[in-house]
Design goal:
This protein has 290 residues and is of the alpha+beta class. Helices cover 18% and strands 36% of the residues. The strands form four sheets. Strands 4, 5, 7, 8, 13, 17 and 18 form a seven-stranded mixed sheet that branches. Strands 1, 2, 3, 6 and 9 form a five-stranded antiparallel sheet that branches. Strand 7 and strand 8 form a beta hairpin. Pfam families: DUF7918.
C-alpha cells in the first residue's frame, strides 16, 4: 500500500518527507489506534539516498488548537517546537546547535569497519527511523531558555553488526541562521499523534518486497530483441521447407513433360513451350488488380 501523493495522514494531521523538492513515496503504510495515552500512530517506509538533504513537512487540519512538534532522528531528539493555530505547512530541515547556528538534515552511508572494538554500538539499534510526534495544546507565550540538543554521532559500525542497514542520518556543516532561536511555554492537552518513517535505500526496499521493482528500459529492449531473433529464426526454417517443396515439384513437372512428348503412337509431337510452375512464397505480394 502506498500513501496517495506521498502524504501520510492521521487524526487531522499530515506528515511527509521531502528530498530534492519532491515528497518521498511512502510504502507499506500502516495505522494503529493504540490507547489514549500513546495516541494513534501512522508508519511507513521511504527510500533514502546517500548525501541527500531532506526535510520533514507537517500540516494540521482546520481546528482551534496550536500544537507541539517533536522530531526524533535515529531516535535522538533534534527539534521540539510549538506551532500556532495555522493550517499552513511547517517545514523542519535543521537542528539548532546554538541560538544563531543550525545544521541541516542529511542521509549518509554508514561508515563500516572490521575493528572488533566497534561490535558493541548502542546507537546502532536506533538507526533507520524518522519519528515525528504531534500534540495539540495551548501556546502560553515567550519564555527564557538556553538548552541545546545533545546529539551523539553514530560513529563507525562493525561490518557484522549493520543488520541490513546502509544509511543513517547525519548533519551538515554549521550555518548561521537568518533568525535566532526563540523559546516559549506550551501546555499539552491532547493525545499524541505519531508519524514513523523508516528509511532504507530503494534497492533494499525492493529486495525485501516493500517497494515494487521498477523495470528498466534496457531490460525491456533486451527482451524485445530476444523475441525478434527467435521469430526470425522460425521464419527462416519455414522458407527452407518451401524451397525444397518447390524443387521437388519442378522435377516432377519435368518428368511429366518428357512422358507427354513420347506419346501419341511414338510420333514426336511439336514441343510445346511450358511456363514454369510458380509457387507462392510466404509473405509474397500478389497483384489481384483486374
Amino acid at each position: 500500500m502506498e500513501a496517495p501523493n506521498g502524504v501520510l495522514s492521521c487524526d487531522g494531521f499530515e506528515a511527509w518527507i521531502v528530498v530534492d523538492g519532491v515528497p518521498c513515496t511512502q510504502y507499506s503504510v500502516q495505522y494503529e489506534e493504540r490507547d489514549a495515552v500513546a495516541g494513534p500512530k501512522a508508519s511507513c517506509w521511504i527510500a533514502s539516498t546517500a548525501d541527500k538533504a531532506f526535510s520533514i513537512n507537517i500540516k494540521k487540519g482546520q481546528d482551534s488548537n496550536a500544537y507541539k512538534a517533536t522530531v526524533y532522528l535515529d531516535e535522538q531528539r533534534v527539534r521540539n517546537l510549538a506551532v500556532h493555530n495555522t493550517p499552513a505547512t511547517v517545514t523542519i530541515s535543521k537542528t539548532w546547535v546554538s541560538d544563531y547556528e543550525a545544521k541541516n538534515f542529511l542521509f549518509a552511508p554508514l561508515e563500516l569497519t572490521d575493528d572488533d572494538s566497534y561490535l558493541e554500538n548502542p546507537a546502532l539499534q536506533n538507526i533507520g527511523s524518522i519519528r515525528v510526534v504531534l500534540t495539540r495544546g495551548t501556546y502560553r507565550g515567550r519564555a527564557a531558555g538556553h538548552h541545546g540538543y545533545n546529539i551523539v554521532d553514530t560513529g563507525k559500525v562493525h561490518e557484522r553488526s549493520k543488520k541490513g542497514l546502509s544509511h543513517r542520518v547525519k548533519y551538515g556543516p554549521v550555518e548561521r541562521s537568518e533568525n535566532n532561536r526563540k523559546f516559549c511555554a506550551f501546555d499539552v492537552h491532547g493525545k499524541p499523534v505519531t508519524f514513523l518513517f523508516r528509511y532504507r535505500p530503494l534497492d533494499m526496499l525492493q529486495a525485501s518486497e516493500i517497494a515494487p521493482r521498477t523495470r528498466s528500459l534496457s531490460e525491456g529492449e533486451e527482451n524485445n530483441v530476444g523475441t525478434v531473433v527467435k521469430e526470425e529464426e522460425e521464419i527462416i526454417n519455414v522458407d527452407s521447407d518451401d524451397e525444397k517443396e518447390k524443387e521437388l515439384l519442378a522435377q516432377l513437372e519435368s518428368v511429366r513433360n518428357k512422358k507427354r512428348a513420347k506419346q501419341d503412337d511414338g510420333r514426336l509431337k511439336k514441343k510445346v513451350k511450358t511456363e514454369p510452375v510458380r509457387h507462392f512464397m510466404p509473405g509474397e505480394v500478389i497483384d489481384l488488380t483486374l
